[in-house]
Amino acid sequence: MNPNPQATTAADAPPRSHPRAFEPVTLVLTIVLSVLGALIGIVLITTLGVSPNTAVIGALVAMLIGRVPVGVLTRMRSKHRQNLVQSAISGSTFAAANSLLTPIAVPFALGRNDLVWPMLGGAVIGLAVDSWVLYRVFDSKLLPATGSWPAGIAAAETINAGDTGGRKAAILGVGAVVGFVGALFKLPTSAAGVGFLGNIWALAMFGIGLTVGQYAPDFGFDLGANHVPHGLMIGAGLVALTQALLLMRTRKGGGEGADQAESADGGPDADGGRTVQAPQLRRGLLEGMGLFICGAVVVAIAGGVVGGLSLPALVGWVLLAGVAAIVHQLIVGLAAMHSGWFPAFAVTLIFLIIGLVLHIPTVPLALLVGYTASTGPAFADLGYDFKAGWLLRRDAAPWRPFEIEGRRQQYLAQLVGFGVALVVVAVAWKAFFSEGKVPPVAEVYVTTIKTGLEPGTMTTMLLWAIPGALVQLIGGPSRQMGVLLATGLLVATPQAGWMVLGALVIRQLYTMWRRRGIADARARKESDEQAENDLSLVGAGLVAGSSLNDVGQLTKAL
Fold this sequence. Notes:
73% helix
């Protein structure tokens, strides 16, 4: 599915050591663009309720700077430095908008301005643990680098197109133009792009969910009001978590050393070529769970929850907050990996409803919701960026050490972006909130907390959890069909379902057209791979073009 690495000559072979995130030129550009990304994220989340992926913008700016014939600026011609910059700006955008500003907007909208700073501290912990866990478990069997991660493919192909040009750049450019123009006419062209990039079964369920979610109200049944998608996500999510636990097991007779030996042949495409094996996945998730619980303790102390709950209730709140945080990040990450969309709002709402069912008091519930909301988006975004880096580093030799070091430098670059986002949010939140510019999702959370639940809501959700669990079980962990079906129903963007399903049909027809007259099995396989490569470029272009349009919405917001 992923584009094959292009042959390299001695002149354009990758460097033996990966460029550093803290090199002066790279660091300065990273900080400047991270400020821009954070501001874009804050403006759009508070006015339009969306947070765009600015990775393509960062890649384009880095490429343009690299073309300036002035001394050290020419270093930015390196696609690996461009990858570091685009990682930082996209990280700062999602961190500022989703992981920091939205959580602190919850206590503000509740009228508890005194809890904004404690909530910001909790959100910083959630963001830090979120990114740390993804760094530890990316390219495992649960979250493989070979997964779709559509926005990551778009960023990598944009950088590659600027680096190599030719037919590849032409196909990507045409796709980007179509994606941009379609988005101008309010068509979700990114959904079509996703249809060319991911697992067909997962995307088929995603498309079905989108389509059903769009048209169900026309038949007099509001799925959202009846919490059908939320119930499906509960069932699918529970099975997905069970599947994740099973993936953490070490195979009999293997062990960590044997697993790593499998992938020591130096190439990313070899059997067993993952850089993270089962024991590392297990440690990463367990460490994440422990850190999230510690973060919940900090939020409980800083937010005054300690004085308002009995000791058993306090222990229960801390455990629920820790579990909610890691479950939220995993479900959001799995959905993002397969579909390029993540239902962060809806999954947070599920834990809000659980909190209402458990009769958690208003303030502890608001802090629980804010802490949960701080996880997930940065987790997904870092996955996109690691995917982009993985694609850009595939021609390295030796591959494994270069890939591991490159991923580490990307993580450091994103930490810079997160730090910039924190400073921007800390300085700007009061000015935005005082003007009534609060993320719409935060107001929905607070309204739900105040109004409570209708009778029978939890029963309805548990009933719908059964088919969600069955679909997820049938599809298995590699397809995530239940999670993707629920994701489609939850986001229910108009026309997006037709875009996804239409892209899947075109994908199959194009593959069959290229096969025509080919009888040899090996030749058919090569033809299918080339068809996937071509369509991956088209899909990446559509996603990139749509992302450019999203960032262009800044003028409308202002």
